[in-house]
Amino acid sequence: MRKQTFRAGLIAMMLAVSTMVIPASHGVSAEEFGGTEPGKWILGTRVGFSPVTQQLSGNRSTSIGPIVNFQGLYSINRWFLVGLMVEWERHGVSLERPDVDLGHQDTVSVLPTMELRPVKFDRITPYVNMSFGVNINSFGENTAVRISPSNTFAWRLGWGADYRLSEQFALNVEWAYKRNDGHTTGTGGRNDDWNASSFAFLFGGKIYF
Q1: Kind of pairing, strands 181-186 and 147-149?
Q2: CA gap 88, 149 in Å, rounded
Q3: DSSP type of residue 32
């Protein structure tokens, strides 16, 4: 299942890149190549919802949770940006049989990020980004069962688009996959089968300056 999720993410990334690059090669001149301006800072705030990609662990289910994302990027040239992304998400966790609410897992992800913006279409700028960093996981228990999730390596792949309202402001939508695969310790010992990898559906705004 995890290999299938990883493969699906890579296929989606290639499709997103080809969708942006192929129109650029046919309808955009060399002078217009690139979706941003060199030396620009982009600050963004997005909110949305986040389902996990699969069952969290044996006999445990998770809710679709809220997600909040902040990012700051700097454009090195007309198509390549680097920066930092910080993301928080929460998922309720319960036993399936019997039905018991165990609590919720919080994840704060710190993600150095690179982004490609190969082209823009009038007010719309599509992009694809990739991040590597750390997932800082914690658990709030509602029962006597103690659960302590490990911090994990984070790999995030996202693609979306900005819609420019003006030179300084844009609306944004983004879809992303984030890997968060680790273990827990606590009541009952160590559980190595704990995968909180998730999809994110984000909506918000960005400031260009």
Answers
A1: antiparallel
A2: 15
A3: G
- Sorted by where each starts, the structural domains of the chain and their CATH numbers stand as 2-208 (2.40.160.20)
Could you tell me how many helices (H) and strands (E) the chain has, helices first? 1, 12
Q: What is the DSSP letter of 187?
A: T
The residues, ordered by sequence, that sit 6+ positions from 157 with a Cβ below 8 Å of its Cβ are 9, 12, 13, 128, 129, 130, 131, 176, 177, 178
pLDDT per residue as tens digits for the range 126-144: 999 999 999 999 999 999 9
Entry field: residues in the chain: 209
pTM > 0.85: no
* CB-based contact 170:206 (threshold 8 Å): yes
* Spatial contact of 105 and 196, defined as CB atoms under 8 Å apart: yes
